[in-house]
Amino acid sequence: MLNSELEHFIQEDLGPYDLSCILVPEREVEAIIFSKEECTLAGIDVAMSIFRYFGLQATTPHRDGDQIPAGETIFFLKGSSVSMLRAERLSLNFLGHLSGIATMTNKCVQIVREFSDARVACTRKTIPGMRSLEKQAVMAGGGDTHRFGLSDCIMLKDNHIKLMGFEAAIKEAKKRASFTQKIEVEVESMEEALLVAGLEVDIIMLDNMGPGEVLRTVQALKKAGLKEHVVIEVSGNINIGNLEEYAKTGVDVISMGSLIHAARWIDVSMEFSV
Description:
Elements (H helix, E strand, L loop, with lengths): L2 H12 L4 H4 L5 E8 L3 E2 L3 H10 L3 E3 L7 E2 L4 E8 H33 L5 E3 L9 H10 L13 E3 L1 H7 L1 H11 L6 E5 L2 H9 L4 E5 L3 H13 L7 E5 L7 H5 L5 E3 L2 H4 L6 E6 L1
Parallel strand pairs: 6-11, 7-8, 8-9, 9-10, 10-11
Antiparallel strand pairs: 1-5, 1-12, 2-4, 3-5
Helix pairs in contact: 1-4, 3-4, 4-5, 8-9
């Protein structure tokens, strides 16, 4: 995280006049940050940046991706009592939010691994300003980041197709694409998938299709000899409750916005030693 971004978050929390922290006696104290529940850790680096900003000594035996039990100490802290209080909520917010994403992702990856080697990916449904950190948390949980932004690949979605049609949109994309860019096309039926696969794109996204329809589409692509030449991604309304059914369909990638927007925060806390 850039210093300017960090300072924005800190200033938002401190406000113009922080009386709640400066009213305590200024002295050196020690504290720990620990998790109240089992989780997959994420947010270690950004929390460390916050502690350093406030001049605190911070050590940790952990790194992003570690699986920890309830009650495990994440950080050992030493420094100014006032600085400790100022760093508390912001560091806990990042650790709780990002570890929640990593934990959700890890659960989904474990479900999929029972049935296939498909990648579990997030989407661009992220909190503005938090995308990089949230996608790093997905990585910590064993997931795939998908694209970070519009420049990472050329994705032709439903509104592109409404404006141009499949063939014209794909032709224009191939004309403009760098040799380093892949082209992905969103489809909503088996017939559209077969059409687009024949137009030689890199990735086909099966959007908002039920597990049964996805399975039939994958089988149809195999029968037509098109499956080996394209990556098949499925997305839309996939959650931890129906993930197993999608994992059995034979797709290459399962992308889930719910890895981020449905992830529950992990309960982490700071405790002073006095």
